[in-house]
What does this fold into?
Amino acid sequence: MSTIAVIDYGMGNLHSIAKALTLVAPEQQIWVTHDAEKIRRADRLVLPGVGAIRDCMQEIKRYEIDELCREQVQQKPLLGVCVGLQALLNWSEENDGTHCIGLIPGEVKRFVEGAGKQKLKIPHMGWNQVAQSNPNHPMWANIKNCSRFYFVHSYYAVPDDASVIAGTTEFGIEFVSALHHDNIFATQFHPEKSQKDGLQLLQNFVRWNGQCN
It folds into this structure.
């Protein structure tokens, strides 16, 4: 039986993701854990996250999740969700600046209320389309381009290298809503709250063995 570790550092939408994974992959064993040995034994990792990035990183460092992610992502797939995506970059401007895990070079910026063609209401909350930058990636299998997913966030990722962008979304500006890099796939949206297409993405993750050339 394969195992998926939903990493618990006290700041994530843990049980909703675990429930969704159980729904799409009842044959998988789902662990909600911060135990280092279980994380090392798992076949796949999920890094969720909600709330302020400084609080998230404080707990991630307390449980040494940052070091575990750097170590384990070399050998197994990792799915980052919402603040879990943001934590994978180098730095966030939230909370006057916060250093993050640094698995994907880049930074995280806040939406500007007056940016773009319309006055933005922040946070960006609700359903929005995701344009697939790399539709051949296995994580997009059986998901139509520009499908709608559920978002709740005030900050967005700005990677240094555009080749890691897996999806973009319009919210006053075009922002990065999904990233891929080697064994990492990460979404700013919440797949566990995104109904059919979100469940499909989670099912794709269960089947994905990592990396995509």
Summary: The first helix runs from residue 14 to 24. The first strand starts at residue 3 and ends at 7.
